[in-house]
Write a structure and sequence with these properties.
This protein is an all-alpha fold. It is built from five helices and no strands.
Amino acid sequence: MDDQNIWQELLGRSAGPFKLRLILQPAMAIFFAIRAGRRDGKENRPPYGWALLTDRAHRRELLREGWKDVGKIFVIASVIDVIYQFVVFRTIHPAQALVVASVLAVVPYLLIRGPAGRISRRAR
């Protein structure tokens, strides 16, 4: 499969069946990110993304904590994308499923948790 077909398949998901998941799954990831960010703010912890990059001593713990929040959403997004691929393409591309799940679950979580923590910390 060439690169152009891969991009067409990835971008085609916005108009195909199961498109409601493109709203619901990021919304759930954002919900968990806000909840975790509020907890970070209460505990006066540094922004999550920054801590992941700079705090080597706690990185594993931070990743485990983040995965606990977003892991189920990631798995559900992967499974739904595999079902989508089978229904639409009659074939399964696991790498595409992982890319889609990452975009729908992990990216929103990483983008929102840090700012949610900062807002929570300032609100106190």
